[in-house]
Structures are given as C-alpha cells and as structure tokens.
Amino acid sequence: MKDKEKELVEKESTEKKETKKLGRKQKEKKYGKILMMISFFFIPALIASLIIASHSDRLINSTMETILQVLLGLFVGLFLVGGYFFIKRRKEKIDPFKPLIRVGYTIVMICYLVCEVFCLVLFYGPNTDFRDWLVTTAMATMNHHYYCEWFYSDEEIEEVFSRNYIAEPDGSTNTSPLTEMPPVSPDGVYVNEYEEAVLKRDPGTLYKIIRFKVNNCNAYLAVIYDPSKVGVTTTKYVGKYGQYVTEMAQREKAVVAINGAGFQDPGHSSTGGRPTGITIVDGKIVTNNQYGRPKSGGLIGFNKENKLLLLKNVSASEALEMGIRDAVSWGPFLIVNGKAAFTKGNGGWGYAARTAIGQREDGIVLFLVVDSNASRSKGASMVDMTNIMKNYGAINATNLDGGTSSVIVENGKLINDPIDSTLAHRTRPIATSFIVTE
Question: Which residue in 250, 242, 334 sits closest to 279, CA to CA?
Fold first, then answer.
C-alpha cells in the first residue's frame, strides 16, 4: 500500500511539474509574440526620430538623441528575445495566428513602413517643393513656426528662403493726380477680358464683385468705382480688443469691407486690438507705432485726392502733411508706380488665404480676397496676388493681413469662407478694416 501511495504521489508531482512546464512554455510563447509586435511598431518610429534628430537642432539635443539610440537598441533587443521565445516554443500543430489575422497584420505593417519611408522622402528627399511650401507657409504665420522648426535647422530654413523671396519695388508711390475713369465702352469692345470685367457695369453702380478661382480656391475681387468712398475704420477698443469686420461694417454702414493691416497678438490670445504701425482715420492719428512696425511694406493710405499711396519710411506727421486721410501699415508692397515686385519661387510667404488692396490709373480701387482650402494647405502666394492685381490693371497694390483675418463683407454679411488654425470655418476679431460707404 505504501509503495502504491508513494507511486501516486510521485505521479501527481510529475504531472504538476509537466503542467507548470507547459504553462510556462505557453506564457513564453505568448509574451514573445507580444514583445515582437510591440517592438515591431516602435523600431521604425525610433529610426525615423533619429533621422529627424540628425536634421534638427531644435527638436532634439544630443542627450535626447542618445536616449533615442538607447531606446532603439532596447526595442531591437526585445524584438530578438521575443522572436527567440516565440520560435522556440512554437509547435507546428499550434498556429498562433489565424490566416486572415496574419495577412491583415502583415498588410498593416507594410502600410506603416511605407508611410514612414514616404514621410522621410517627402521631408528630406531631393525634391524641394514640399519643403519650400511647408517652410514658407509655416514661417509666414504668427504662431505655427513649429511646423517646420521641428524638422529643419536654422540653416535649412534659410536655404529655403534663399530660393523663395519677394523684393519690393523701389521707392514710394508718386503723388501725381489720377486720370479720369474711362466711360463704359459704347460698342462693347474692351482691350481684354480683365478690362471688360472691371469696366462693364450699369450706370451709377458704386461697386461690383467678381468671383473666380485661384489654385482651386474661391477668390473675390471688389471693384470700387468711386475712390472717395473708400476709407479706414478700426475696432472700437483700440489697444484692448479687436472686432469682427462684420461688426465694423455694420457700425459704419459700409456696403463693402475687407480686413486691413496686421496687429500685435500677445500670447496668441486672438484679441486683435493693437494695429501694427501707423493708423490714420479721417485725417486723425489713431496709432503711431506704439504696437510695433511691419517687417516689410510701409504706410498704405488714401490722400485727399483719393489716390492710394504706398509710402516707405514716413512718420505719422509727415503722412498728414502729405494729405493722407486714411491709412494703415503693412506689406509687402506688390506693385508701385506700375512696377511689380520681383519674386523668386513662391515669394517666401507660402500659400494661404490672402487679402490685398490696389488702385488702377483711372482711380478704380480693387479689393482682393482669396480663400484657403479646408485643410489650409492652399490659397494664394504673393506671386498670385501680384499677377491678379496686374491683370486687372492695378498700378499700385499691396498685401494686407492674411490667413484667418482674410475676409470680405458685403452689406454687413461675410461672403467668403475664412478658416482658422483649428480648421473651423470662422474668422477672428481684428484691428482695422478698409470700408466702402455710400
């Protein structure tokens, strides 16, 4: 009896050991598979991060790069250890993946790796089109520089701008009087389609709005036939808060309005109440550089003869002496005295929603607004804005504030489609507007 009991105990002990051993093998196989899957996802990401690190002195310093290298080594090690246990403990009769799951997993991983390679080629490949677009567009914004600073060093950013820049025309607008606006062609014959679009109108019409496409985005050109009706207005809360262009237009009973110059926005709080540089309304100085000066361009104003003057390096008092009645400060200047700016590449400002103002030799004022697309990746370049103004006969034209600020209002209602940085279809409070009143 004792021998039988002893034999049963030994048998039970052996069975328990075998069960534990089998359970350990199954766990090793399971954990090995998990380690392989996790590592397989992280290894490409770490390799991409190291490549980016080698191109950027902003995102990752030497310490961070060392950490990434250690993590990469760790995950490669985990992948190898996991593979060892998985292969060692795998039995032919046990298939850990069902065929469809295995195929699906393989497809996902191939797509993931292809995307990694595609992104690396896109950001750092021999074709510079995407790089130029990203750098010039991001650096032209107020608070999205990080889109390119994450991936490129200062030297690489400077190299992009050496291929894309705008050189403004020399000098300021001459003060010679405007010529008389030609009458509507009695025989319906015009020099070209642009002249026909501008000059063909019903008698007594104050303005018309021409709609067209720029880079597959909506564009609006307001043609103002009486320049004496064009002026500047500001937010009611200058120095504190901005207002929507619709609010300014309704307050001033304007039939057409567009956004004006840029503004200071401390902390990117979107208050928009501090117009940059000099602001003059109805011959009175509203701001005088206390909120900074524009980096390019200068004073954009109408004098008492209703001529649009683009002036470099003038003070507010000098502007009043020159007869300026309404003005803001911004740029860059696109056309001065009929001479267009020299642009290389996309002009260095990228593609975005944009606003510009110009005037023809016959006095007709042009308000130009171009929308962006739903992802804010398109719009107009400075080259586009200059060419459009030239086509429609502007002899003086300048860029105004753009992006989310770019709006055109007709009879108190917004007629274009601004998009903000969150991709919401809305505009923002701003500091100044150009308006047309009857």
Answer: 242
Phi-psi region of 354 (alpha: psi -120 to 50; beta: other; left: phi over 0): beta
Long-range interactions of 197-202: CB distance < 8 A, separation 24+: 197/223, 197/392, 198/223, 198/360, 198/364, 198/392, 198/393, 201/225
Residue-by-residue pLDDT tens, the chain, 438 positions: 555 555 655 555 665 555 665 566 666 556 656 665 665 656 565 565 555 554 444 444 455 555 655 665 665 565 556 555 555 555 544 455 555 555 665 666 666 666 666 676 667 777 777 777 777 777 666 556 656 666 777 777 778 778 887 888 888 888 888 776 665 555 667 889 999 999 999 888 999 999 999 999 999 999 999 999 999 999 999 999 999 999 999 999 999 999 999 998 776 666 789 999 999 999 999 999 999 888 889 999 999 999 999 999 999 999 999 999 999 999 999 999 999 998 887 777 889 999 999 999 999 999 999 999 888 888 999 999 999 999 999 999 999 999 999 999 999 999 999 998 788 899 999 999 999 999
